[in-house]
Design a protein that fits this description.
Length: 78
C-alpha cells in the first residue's frame, strides 16, 4: 500500500501531475503529495473528505482541487 503513484488533476484548465504516496498512520492512512518538491500531507476526515495538514506556499485552490480528486478516487475504491 505504500507504493508511490502519480496523481493527475486538471487545475485552471491545465493538466498537472504530482508524485504521491500512501502512508500508513495508525488504523488509517495519509497521502503525501509533492508540489514543487514540498510534501503536502492529506488525510481523510470522519466524513470522507480530505484535508491538508500543515501549511506552505501552494495555492489554496490547487490544494482544494487535489483534495477533491482524492475524495473522488476514494469513492471509486469503496
Amino acid at each position: 500500500m505504500n507504493e508511490p503513484f502519480i496523481l493527475e488533476i486538471t487545475y485552471q484548465n491545465k493538466p498537472l501531475a504530482f508524485p504521491a504516496a500512501f502512508q500508513r498512520y495508525g488504523y488509517t492512512y495519509r497521502i503525501a503529495v509533492s508540489i514543487a518538491d514540498v510534501p503536502y500531507v492529506f488525510e481523510p476526515d470522519e466524513e470522507g473528505r480530505y484535508r491538508v495538514l500543515g501549511s506552505g506556499d501552494a495555492d489554496a485552490g490547487l490544494l482544494r482541487t487535489i483534495a477533491e480528486k482524492l475524495e473522488a478516487l476514494a469513492r471509486t475504491r469503496s
